[in-house]
Amino acid sequence: MATLGNLGNIAVLHGNYEEALGYFEETLLMVQRSGVRKIESLTLGGYGDVHHQMGLDEVALEYYLQALEIQQEIGYHMGEAGTLNNIGSIYKDLSLYEQALEYFHQALPIWQEIGNKEGEASTLQNLGEILELLGKDASEALLHEATGNAGIVHLAAHGSFNQKAPLFSRLWLTPGEEHDGYLTSM
Questions:
Q1: Least buried of 96, 105, 117, 149, by fewest C-beta within 10 Å?
Q2: For the domain that residue 99 is a member of, what is the CATH number?
Q3: pLDDT tens figures, 11-42
Q4: What is the domain extent for residue 96?
């Protein structure tokens, strides 16, 4: 089963989408007969990936939602977070930004809980892109909303660095009702 799935992934990398779908179809039939739900969810995700690469986002979304249901059912959190991120990306591509935000906000705490920094960074990047597309100003409140309890956040912003007292350095953001627009570590 794993070999067929790997062959499908290789076919995707080479742009042979029809071939990849054939491998995933064989894999899916085998895993559904064997009852290995985790591999079934990964195979459904593979179907979603191929269809997304082909520009068939609505079809990809259907497969991702099936994969997500299984991942939540069996408690496969890493797969769940990745699938939530993929679903958010589909909604972003379809310009359905509020739905995209919803899925990215679901993925972020899972990545944080399992300690996957790469997944967390990817989701934070997606959140930033959506907020930019929505035309929201880079305020302190919005930054807190987007990043949750992220341990480390990389930003591209204007600011000032105090070499003698680095803790008093600050980023310059858009002022809000409750904030002056300066983000400091204190």
A1: 149
A2: 1.25.40.10
A3: 888 999 999 899 889 988 999 999 999 999 99
A4: 2-145
